[in-house]
Amino acid sequence: MARLEADPDWVAKRAEEESVRQQREAEYRRAEEPLVAELRGAGYAVESAWDLVNTSTPYPEALPILLSHLQRPYPGAVREGIARALAVRPARFGWDVLTRLFRQETEERVKDGLAVAIAATADEEVIDEVIALARDRQHGSSRLLLLRALERSKSPRARAALMELGTDPELEKEIQVNLRRLKTSKR
């Protein structure tokens, strides 16, 4: 590390990367201001939607606000944070919006955040829709994040879907882990 710190080219490159990162973070903070203001108005002392992702304290009054803002044209990092903040069971009321946005989303990080929210809010009533989303290869690697809902489900259809998806090259390794975990938990 000392050798790198002595290299002026490396130091300059690192300084430039840090400057770009800080500018990007400032842009995200500015973009997220309307959401943060509304959340604060509802009594949540947050700087970002990510603050809700990282808390164990329930935030039920924030969920409709988050769902509303998820549909706005924020930068991807902000939309991902909003989606991940919606990854709690009480956000189930937003199922139709979450799945619609997931189907439409093209930015991978946002799609991943939506998949996490879908998996967290899924229940037996919508498990067939989760199965359909997991089978649809157009959703790419984000499908991996949907598997948690299938693993958690008591539905024989979910178990069968896991077995079927076990031959999908994108999902194969994760499904093998899921199936081993399920087998172990039955003992």
* Domain unit count: 2
Strand tally is 0
Order of helices and strands: HHHHHHHHHHH
User: From the helix content, strand content and strand pairing, which structural class follows?
Assistant: mainly alpha
What's the overall average pLDDT, rounded? 92
Cα gyration radius (Å): 20 Å
Quaternary form: single chain
User: Which range does the strand content fall in?
Assistant: under 5%
Descriptive account of the structure:
The chain has 187 residues and is mainly alpha-helical. The protein has two domains: 25-121; 125-187, no CATH class. It is 67% helix and 0% strand. It is built from eleven helices and no strands. It has helices at residues 2-6, 8-41, 50-53, 62-70, 76-85, 95-104, 108-121, 127-135, 147-152, 156-165, 172-186. Helix 5 runs parallel beside helix 7. The longest helix is centred in the first third of the chain and has 34 residues, at 8-41. It is globular. The termini are far apart.
